[in-house]
Amino acid sequence: MSNIRFVTLVPVTAMLLFWALTPISIAWIKDDFSLIFQVWLRYVSSTVALWLILLAGKSLPGNLDILIKNGGYFLKRLSVTACCTIMFQLLYTWCFFLIPPGFGTLLYQSQVIFSVILGILFFKTERQLIRQPGTAAGILMALGGAALVIVFHNHGFSVALNTGILLALGGALSWSFVGITVKKWIGNKLTPLFTVTIVFTLVSIFLTPAVLLSGPQITGNPGIIKWLVLVGSGLLGIAGGQGLYYYLLPRLGIIPASSVQLLVPFFTGIFSFLLFGERITFLQLTGGLILLGGCRVVLLQKQKLMVKPH
């Protein structure tokens, strides 16, 4: 039992730390590297890491065989997924140029609600979810909590703050579209880790012309530490977080693994307080707990639907 707990607790903790520290790294180096260059370098470094992980495993030949035999089918659809991923990462990264990491990460958890709503719209099987007694209550809880988080923050309303809020919510919606495209077009035809590696490869390729045209736009001399933070946030925050997530899926199940992500804002909030002095009001904290609680309720309703015999 202790060994089982070890092989799940350590990866869960590492995954949470990797994802929690990514917004912190973005906020810390935002004045040194341009938005597009940050996103591009993170995905290039994470793509290299994911390919190394794949090469060390046994699933690569089978996945490549399926991809080559159905190249046109998969590449067209994964290109759309890559475009959605680019939109997500640009909006998500940009929001931390404008709003504090803890605040933005908390708003980003609304992606759980967006994913459920889009799933109901695009998948007939998921429309049963809205009939679950707790689904509507969970969605309303999450929306009410998000409203409290936004209204009762202590950063003062401004154009930059309002833009950052919209960017965080837009990033959450874009990530939900990423999940929808993968579920609708890829499903179980390719392994999740191989799918995300191909998507990240396409993202890196698609962003390269923009970086070449605009240039890296590096301000001043960031120093080796900030360069390491930028590359490390790609290796750990993107590749490491994704790799651990797919490692945990068969051990925890998709709903528990998704629920664990709801803890990320707490870790980010702690780091943001220590590094940037970010503080939240009592009502904002209450709203955050209601938001995360609503997301958890919806995920539990989805779990009940998954185990219910059809």
Description of the molecule:
This protein has helices at 2-29, 35-56, 60-69, 71-98, 101-108, 111-122, 135-151, 159-186, 192-214, 223-252, 254-260, 264-276, 282-307. With 310 residues, the chain is mainly α. The protein has one domain (2-307). Helix 3 (60-69) packs across helix 4. The radius of gyration is 19 Å and the shape is globular.
Question: Outline of this structure?
Answer:
The protein is mainly α.
The outline comes out as globular
N-to-C CA distance: 33 Å
Class from secondary-structure proportions: mainly alpha
Number of domains: 1
**Sheet bearing the most strands, described?**
none
Question: How are helices and strands ordered from N to C?
Answer: HHHHHHHHHHHHH
Oligomer classification: single chain
Tally the helices.
13
Radius of gyration: 19 Å
